[in-house]
Specification:
4-stranded mixed sheet, 21% strand, 84 residues, alpha+beta, single chain, 4 strands, 4 helices, 48% helix
Length: 84
């Protein structure tokens, strides 16, 4: 199973939805980096160029936010990314 890292915040409903989707795909461990800490938010912006959460990485590949994750799932590409 691929390594998943997700930048998130404590109150983000899209973060919860992304986590739920990933768990439904069999991902047991999601490394969450909380952006409520300024240094973590700065790191996320530097890595992604985006300011919104969640920002999700699968095996160090930035896949985007929840909408991007859902689009990968709908197209069938998410399973192959997670199984790599």
């Amino acid at each position: 199973m691929a390594k998943v890292v997700m930048y998130s915040s404590k109150t983000c409903t899209y973060c919860f939805a992304a986590e739920k989707l990933l768990h439904s795909k069999g991902v047991k461990d999601i490394e969450k980096i909380m952006t409520d800490i300024d240094a973590n938010r700065d790191e996320m912006v530097q890595r992604t160029g985006r300011r919104t959460v969640p920002q999700i990485f699968i095996d160090d590949k930035h896949v985007g936010g929840y909408d991007d994750l859902q689009a990968l799932n709908t197209s069938g590409q998410l399973d192959s990314l997670l199984s790599a």
